[in-house]
Design brief:
Blueprint (H helix, E strand, L loop, with lengths): L1 E7 L5 E7 L3 H7 L3 E5 L11 E3 L4 E3 L16 H22 L6 H4 L2 H13 L6 H8 L7 H42 L4 H5 L9
Antiparallel strand pairs: 1-2, 1-3, 4-5
Helix pairs in contact: 2-6, 4-6
């Protein structure tokens, strides 16, 4: 038993793929308003495909660009949007991984701790209410000096790491925009956008 494709005339669109014991000539006589094509081994064909009479192959598009069974690349706009989205998501994940070195509850006070530490170090007459409270409840583990120094050290590390990540996001976005422009100019193709490296490295 062979497999055949029934192709509409005109339009050359596959309307049916079916097995049959008939010979090609017999089927062609039975369905004179259709092109009957025998599906040989290795030839891919599905309902809705376009048949190219010139080469005897089936395609998923009417321009005979993409063979049956293949997946065409996305549009430039879709590929660009997907890559840009991944850059931003990876960047956000990296930034979240270097959040201030405190618990979730303590992180909400990060801005106040860092501001008080900075003001106290620059002027010891400043009264850091929150830092004083931390020192008072630390059972002697912290002094105001050691606590302020630790906080400012953490501030420096966090700023450096955040700046590194933000720089990567900007650089990758600029690169992606350049490649998009090159695709539009015809010097690159959309797969360069699809395969663009969107990784953001956490320092």
């Amino acid at each position: 038993m062979n497999t055949y494709a029934m192709v509409s005339k005109p339009g050359n669109i596959v309307t049916n793929v079916f097995p049959a014991d008939y010979r090609l000539q017999e089927l062609s006589s039975m369905f004179p308003n259709y092109i009957i094509v025998r599906i040989t081994e290795g030839l891919k064909c599905a309902n809705g495909d376009y048949y190219n009479v010139a080469d005897g192959l089936f395609y998923i598009d009417p321009d005979f660009t993409w063979l049956s069974g293949t997946t065409p690349p996305p549009s430039l706009d879709d590929a660009y949007a997907a890559s840009l989205k991944m850059i931003r998501e990876n960047g956000s994940a990296a930034l979240m991984s270097i959040k201030p070195p405190y618990s979730e509850q303590e992180a909400s006070t990060w801005w106040a701790q860092s501001e008080e530490a900075k003001l106290w170090v620059s002027n010891n007459s400043f009264v850091p209410e929150m830092l004083n409270a931390i020192v008072a409840s630390s059972s002697g583990v912290y002094t105001l000096q050691t606590l302020a120094s630790e906080i400012l050290s953490n501030v420096t590390s966090w700023k450096e790491a955040s700046g590194n990540i933000l720089g990567q996001i900007k650089y990758k976005t600029d690169q992606l925009n350049t490649i998009k422009a090159e695709v539009i100019a015809g010097t690159k193709n959309v797969m360069d956008v699809v395969n663009f490296n969107v990784d953001i490295i956490t320092p």
